[in-house]
């Protein structure tokens, strides 16, 4: 079967959506189906990868979002879909691509929308306020439910946006590359470089933008150092808040190293395995792939109570509210656990989320089964 995925806001070099699209595409291919991905780009292109064929259509850059592009030409997208003749369509954008549900109905092609973000949360953070934002989110989510044959959410937290409308989304967790991210990537040289033999390395891995609340990681670092802990913060990620955060860290005398986007996959894996605690301060995360990669690397996570991450990290980390004091206390509590035990617990939690499970779950929603066996590279 030909599964065509369409996605907006896919960063060219990083991001959880990019990771998920590649892993799912590879899984579909290995399961015996054909995967095609349509995304916006600066020009029309076509390339073949292990995770399927990738087609880009010209799409403008959205101002202020750090390079994200969006497909706006419905005629071009619809025409490409007609030429491809998909058996299933899978839409990874609940706002600008909602119209594709209607395309699927007219073409007789079953459609799935995957909810990667909290529309309710975004509107509450950046919209007209809690009550108006909630009503607007409910109206838009109701349209999404009506447009698509199925809606997939990755956590129970994300499901609640739809179940309160009486809808019945399908829960399918995402996964993690358990072969790439392992405790064995721990690097003594990185530890010496950033913290010395006795220091504590905090790792913030993610986009530096307002909806991720990265400033909370600086507050946690400040709180630990004020309490006498020799802690440093390593920030792997880029975004519009990088420069202000760097200035704030310097003004406060905080030992924070901003690496920007880490393009070397081996360095990223080593950072995740070498850190003592990973910080995930985003208040409206619906899953948290970076946090799961930290767990797979043997590093426990402090996650925001208001997000879906406590559901994902389980007992391998701790939830904390959005204050520096709470994050400081949670980090301290994790460090008080024996290192061997906390690292083993992190890895064990991550092993509950193989990509093969996510692939099987998504195929089941499509009404499809594996034609070939599980690929060990993603299991």
TrEMBL record:
InterPro entries, per the entry: Glyco_trans_1 (IPR001296), Glyco_trans_4-like_N (IPR028098), Glycosyltransferase_grp1 (IPR050194)
Keywords for the protein's UniProt record, in alphabetical order: Glycosyltransferase, Transferase
Transmembrane segments: none
Segments forming domain Glycosyl transferase family: 198-348
Domain of life (superkingdom): Bacteria
UniProt keyword annotation of Ligase present: no
Molecular function as annotated in GO: glycosyltransferase activity
Record Pfam families: Glyco_trans_4_4 (PF13579), Glycos_transf_1 (PF00534)
Name of the protein described by the UniProt record: GDP-mannose-dependent alpha-(1-6)-phosphatidylinositol dimannoside mannosyltransferase
SUPFAM superfamilies referenced in this protein's UniProt entry, alphabetically: UDP-Glycosyltransferase/glycogen phosphorylase
UniProt-listed Gene3D superfamilies: Glycogen Phosphorylase B (3.40.50.2000)
Domain Glycosyltransferase subfamily 4-like N-terminal: 15-172
